[in-house]
Automatic annotation (TrEMBL), chains A, B:
Residues 22-82 form the HTH tetR-type domain. It comes from the Bacteria. PANTHER family: HTH-TYPE TRANSCRIPTIONAL REGULATOR BETI, HTH-TYPE TRANSCRIPTIONAL REGULATOR RUTR. Pfam families: TetR_C_6, TetR_N. Residues 45-64 bind DNA. The keyword NADP does not apply. It comes from Streptomyces erythrochromogenes. This is TetR family transcriptional regulator. Keywords: DNA-binding, Repressor, Transcription, Transcription regulation.
Amino acid sequence: MAQDRPRTAAKGSARGTYAVGDARRQKILDTAVEHFALWGFHASSLARIAAACGITQGGLLHHFRSKEDLLLSVLAQSEQHDVERLFAEPPESVAAHFATVVALAEDNERRPGLVRMFHTLVGEAANPGHPAHAYFRQRYARVLDHTVELLQAGVARGELRPGTDCEAAGREILAVMDGLQIQWVLAPASVDMPARLRGFLDRLLRDLSPA
Amino acid sequence: MAQDRPRTAAKGSARGTYAVGDARRQKILDTAVEHFALWGFHASSLARIAAACGITQGGLLHHFRSKEDLLLSVLAQSEQHDVERLFAEPPESVAAHFATVVALAEDNERRPGLVRMFHTLVGEAANPGHPAHAYFRQRYARVLDHTVELLQAGVARGELRPGTDCEAAGREILAVMDGLQIQWVLAPASVDMPARLRGFLDRLLRDLSPA
């Protein structure tokens, strides 16, 4: 009797194959995060990533065309979370945006693997020949532009002083986020990343508020 | 006649051999900076570094015991410059220390290869199994402790408000330095690193000064 019925309801159906493919694709992405975090792009190997997923390299190449393709797919997925947090609804105020930035730091504390991968790859990618160089340049430009726009909207609403150097403030915010992450990934127990970031942003907001 | 006299004055003398050895050792260190910056530790190879220096791997191993030894030697030398800048004379004031920090950022603009290497390696080294993990943890702790001491001295001299959270301020300063460097190595033409750092430090000093 067990032989006669399909082993799972979805088995063999188009939707079932699809779901299996999705799960395998996600497993490859999750495994790639670990490998890129530990070894960087150059020393990571598709063969080892495939082996860690229990599939052949040919099986992996069915989902991702090349190591470059896998790298850029991992980065795109890792950014999705930040985008949903930061770019979703326009915040009501600069203070609300800053609270979102702190919430993102809290999220990052719960995903150290992604934070580690980010810093391994962004360091390598300073080299213009790196396959993620253009990606990271564009990602930083996107986040900076978005931050500058939100600060400019704050100036327009009278929350921030007229003449605020929004680019300088935006670059500082990004820098403090990155720099605190480096301190935290090196020695997680030694620094309360969201609290330090909140302290910085509270002071920045006071400094930039109209007298 | 040319055959009879030594080809250089130092040739064959103990000092001459020494100088040749020093120059070769320095060439290996400089080449290793480039390789570690581009490839990271794991994907760099002693054979390729030796080849780029025009020597054999055996010749390289005469100067450095292993790839780990070469890595730690490169990092120790790269830190020397910062140490001389930052740890030399105790600064007269917090403002003088901040000026030194900005001067260091100006130095770093003139040595992009070292800055790139730093960020490639510090990213990888978040992994506790990395051969430079302990080194970077200790380096950050040293620089933070030193910064906190200088800020505390500023509080004691009345330059900074009593009750200043010197660790928070120290971590912010390190974070802004690192974060601006990441923005700069990705897109050097887009950010004036020393000017941005000066802007941040000027504001921090105003915020921490007694009312």
